[in-house]
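4.2 Preliminary Data

To establish feasibility before requesting continued support, the project team ran the inverse folding procedure on a target of 304 residues. The structure was first converted into the token representation described in Section 3, and no sequence information of any kind was made available to the design step. The complete token record follows.
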């Protein structure tokens, strides 16, 4: 069973019923039904009907005393993890390039989720979203399966927002900002790759130029959808392949893929508050950026 105790603090003047509050917290309808019929939602220690008005500083207790939608299990890994943020319910990890987010087989133990399994000791990680093996940066992981569908709803509603930084080669001119709205499908000629295709799934990427010269640009990227290799495919198709991309950039790869998930924004579970987690570029990426734009290296990172 997972229990959550919340002291209610309204972020607006609106009065909400218990039902409206659970809906606002994105708790699935089926789980709301279980909470009601099992009397597993308490207001100030007492079960109350769902039409009860919730007052400021009310103590709300949620007992998730029913099976979660899915379970995940991982063998413990061996690598240390870089924790960007952690609380009782979630952990945000800064994944290294070349590390898989999750194992493909149950007997594998070399992915990020395996390493987090080892780190948590008395708990287990539950995957909320993933990033490509070659991509580095922030990954949000739940410590309970009961938060996964809540975060899935945040992903669908764009409340959970992911931002990336990418260094691209300018094979074609690039505007200062824009939106790439091109469907993506499996590449029939290479099982590893995806491609822009009219019969593919909808894929939308927003971009903004942070800095550029004649040959390269540093982009800030925001995903409006989450297709496999979406950023890499979109940018390559537009004539702006990511530096060191082994699949979508014809240039020789000299280092790791310059695509970094630098910012995560999400609604804190059981709250109306927004949480933003940021990460600085790894030192090697920052040094490469300085070299491409021929600016002096410093101990700080001005772009993050």
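Position-by-position output of the design step:
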């Amino acid at each position: 069973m997972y229990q959550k105790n919340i002291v209610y603090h309204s972020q607006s003047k609106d009065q909400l019923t218990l039902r409206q509050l659970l809906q606002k917290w994105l708790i699935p309808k089926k789980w709301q039904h279980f909470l009601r019929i099992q009397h597993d939602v308490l207001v100030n220690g007492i079960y109350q009907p769902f039409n009860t008005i919730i007052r400021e500083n009310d103590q709300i207790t949620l007992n998730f005393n029913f099976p979660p939608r899915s379970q995940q299990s991982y063998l413990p890994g061996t690598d240390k993890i870089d924790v960007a943020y952690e609380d009782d319910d979630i952990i945000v990890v800064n994944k290294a390039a070349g590390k898989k987010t999750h194992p493909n087989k149950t007997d594998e133990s070399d992915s990020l989720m395996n390493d987090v399994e080892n780190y948590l000791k008395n708990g287990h990680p539950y995957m909320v979203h993933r990033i490509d093996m070659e991509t580095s940066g922030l990954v949000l992981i739940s410590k309970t399966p009961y938060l996964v569908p809540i975060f899935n709803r945040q992903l669908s509603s764009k409340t959970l927002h992911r931002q990336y930084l990418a260094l691209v080669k300018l094979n074609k001119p690039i505007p200062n900002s824009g939106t790439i709205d091109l469907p993506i499908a499996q590449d029939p000629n290479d099982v590893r790759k995806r491609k822009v295709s009219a019969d593919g799934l909808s894929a939308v990427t927003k971009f903004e130029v942070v800095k550029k010269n004649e040959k390269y640009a540093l982009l800030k990227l925001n995903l409006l959808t989450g297709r496999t290799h979406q950023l890499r495919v979109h940018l390559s198709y537009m004539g702006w392949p990511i530096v060191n991309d082994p699949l979508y950039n014809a240039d020789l790869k000299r280092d790791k893929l310059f695509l970094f998930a630098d910012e995560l924004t999400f609604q804190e579970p059981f709250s109306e508050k927004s949480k933003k987690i940021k990460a600085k570029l790894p030192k090697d990426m920052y040094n490469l950026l300085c070299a491409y734009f021929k600016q002096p290296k410093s101990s700080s990172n001005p772009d993050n």
